[in-house]
Structure formats: C-alpha cells, structure tokens
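Our consortium's second objective concerns turning raw sequence data into structural hypotheses that experimental partners can test. To show how far this objective has progressed, the report includes one record in full. It was chosen at random from the queue rather than selected for favorable results. The single chain below, 218 residues long, was entered without modification.
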Amino acid sequence: MRTIRLGLLLLSLLTSGGALTAQLVVYSFGSSAAPTSVASNLSADVFSGSLGSPAIGSGIPVYSSGSGGGYFTASAWTGVAPGTNYFEFTLTPGSGYGLSLASISFGYRASGTGPTAFAIRSSSDVFSSTLVSGTITNDSAWHATGPLSITLSSQAAPTTLRVYASGASSSLGTLRVDDVTLSGSVSAIPEASTYAAMLGLLAFSGVLLHRRRTRPAG
C-alpha cells in the first residue's frame, strides 16, 4: 500500500510539475504596452486592442490604488455580452514548458456611457467559452477587480487571452484598464519516457497489492 501511495504522489508531482502558483505577468502601462514583468520560461507580447482606437493613455485621473501613471484605453464597447470588442495579449511558454493560469486581476475605469460587463476568453478553445465574467461599474471612477479565479492548464502552445466588454450605451463610451496581472505556474513538461516509467511503477504496485490480497493465510 505504501508503494502505491508513493507512486501516486510521484505521478501527481510530475503531471503538475510540482509548481506553486505565482505572479506570471504584469502590464502596468507606465510608458508602453509591453509587459512590465514576466516570469522565467515565459514570454508575453504587447497589450493590444481590437476596436475603438486602442492606445496607451495618461493623465488624471489614474489608477491611484495601483501603479498609477498610464493605462490602456479604447471605446466601441456596445452590443450584448461578450461583445465584439476586446483587449488581448499572448503568453508563450518556453520550449519544454507548460503554462497554467489560476487568476487574473486588473483595475478599470468606464465612462458613464461605457461598458457594463466583461468576459475573459482564451485561444485554447478559439474563444468559444468564458473563463470568468463580471459586471463593470461605469461611473468614471477607478475600481479594482481583485483576483478573479480562472482555470487554464498545461498550455504548451502560445495562448492568447482576450478581455471582452459589452453593454455600453454609446460607441464613444470608454474603458480604461491598468495593472493587468496574471498568476499561475510555468512547469517543465515531463518526457514521455518519464510517464512510461511512472505508469510501470504503478502497474507493478498493483501486482504487489493483488498478490498480497490473494495470498493464502498462513
């Protein structure tokens, strides 16, 4: 029984990479749309937008409870959820590594005619399902979402995240975001031979357990 438990523990550690959740990427928009910080064995492209003249902005008011300075902004957030406009960025794990996401947080400011809802989707399923969604307070003041739980595991290919928004009463209504932060892990992907060895250990442990259970009482 102890052998089986050890085998299961080792297999669990291998498939998860033994990694702990940590901060992976931050976009603070101090002077550009490039990431401010990126974890090891991961790369991230510039933050961008789809419609409504997406661009870096600065000036007052800024997200004072965050890094301050600049933000990323766009208009054209009309329509029903999830909407047709979005902010996006792509995360690419290094060769031999897998990306797992656990949470996202950001500050935002929506104008009075700006969007009232958001939804975050990924390229892992061609943006067909929502990882997390919520409401937006469009009162021209800055708000913080706090960490929002998302589940996206073992992505070895480049993965694009899109922050959709919708419900604006005017195409001129704006949405600003700042301090976009992703947390999760980047773990080495075990070689196929490692999985084979672990499966062999588990099979052997099963044989031992079967023999123990069927052994005549002496």
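The partners drew two points from this record. The two ends are 20 Å apart (CA to CA). Residues 6-17, 193-197 have pLDDT under 50 and may be disordered. Both points have been shared with the crystallography group to help prioritize constructs.
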